[in-house]
Amino acid sequence: MNIDIITVVPELLDSPFSHSIMKRARDKGLLTVQMHNLRKWAINKHMQVDDYQFGGGAGMVMMPEPLANAIDELQQEKKYDEIIFLTPDGERFNQKAANQLSLKENILLICGHYKGIDERIRKQYVTKEISIGDYVLSGGELAAAVVVDAIGRLIPGVLNDETSALFDSFQDNLLAPPVYTRPADFRGDKVPDILIQGDPKKVEEWRHEQSLLRTRERRPDLLDD
C-alpha cells in the first residue's frame, strides 16, 4: 500500500511512522508513507499557501492553487483510489472504514490547517472526507497519523499474528473482552478459572459473552447498529 500525505508541517509525522508496527510495515515493504510539504507548491517566494477568507472573519484558509498543483503533480506518478481530506465535518472514522481503506493500493491524504481548505478543492479533487472525532485539532496531521496506523496494521503481513486484528474492538461491532496475563493471582485478584482450564470452546464462549456485556455497558449504541 502507498500513502501520500500533503501537509504544511511534515515534521509532525516523522515520529508516528518511524516506530513500532508502522516502522515494521515500512521495513517489510508492505506500506510506503511519504510526506509532501505543501510549501513546495507555494505561490510566491514567501512560501505562501494560505490567505484571508472572502466575506471576512477570523482565520486563514489554505489556497486552492498550491493544493491543486500538488495533487496534479502527484497524480502524474500514480492513480489514487481515494483522495481523502481530514476535516472535523467529515464522515466519522471507524473500524469498518479502516477495513475498507486497507484494501486500497494508493491513497492520498490532505491535512487541513488554519480554517481548512478552499471549498473548490473539496469539490474538484476530494473523494472522501474523514473526521476522527467531534473535536477540532490544530491541523490534520495527527488525524492522518491515526488513519494510517488504523489501516496500516490491517495489511496482511504487518502483524506477527494476522488473526490478532480480527478480534480487536469494533471488528464485529463489539468491544473486545477483558484480557489477562501472568501472574494468575495479582494482589488477590485472580484470573477467571475458565481461561486457565484451557478448553478453547468454553474460552471462546466466555470471551463472546464478555464482549456483549462490555459493549452493552459502555457502548450500547454499537448493539443498536
Q: Would you give an account of this structure?
A:
The structure is a single chain. The chain is built from eight helices and nine strands. It has helices at 20-27, 64-77, 95-101, 119-124, 141-152, 193-197, 200-218, 220-224; strands at 2-7, 32-37, 50-52, 60-62, 82-92, 106-111, 128-131, 185-186, 189-190. Helix content is 34%, strand content 19%. The strands form three sheets. It has a five-stranded parallel beta sheet, covered by helices on one side. Strands 3-4 form a two-stranded antiparallel ribbon. A two-stranded antiparallel ribbon has the order 8-9. The chain is an alpha/beta fold. The chain folds into two domains: 2-152, 3-Layer(aba) Sandwich (Alpha/beta knot), CATH 3.40.1280; 169-224, Orthogonal Bundle (Trp Operon Repressor, Chain A), CATH 1.10.1270.20. β3 (50-52) and β4 (60-62) form a beta hairpin.
Summary of the model, kept short:
With 225 residues, the chain is α/β, with parallel strands linked by helices.
Arrangement of strands in the largest sheet: 2-1-6-5-7
CATH topology of the largest domain, by name, is Alpha/beta knot
Secondary structure: helix percent: 25-40%
Instruction: Find the CATH superfamily of the largest domain.
Output: SPOUT methyltransferase, trefoil knot domain
Query: What structural category characterises the helix and strand content?
Result: alpha/beta
Domains, number: 2
Strand content: 15-25%
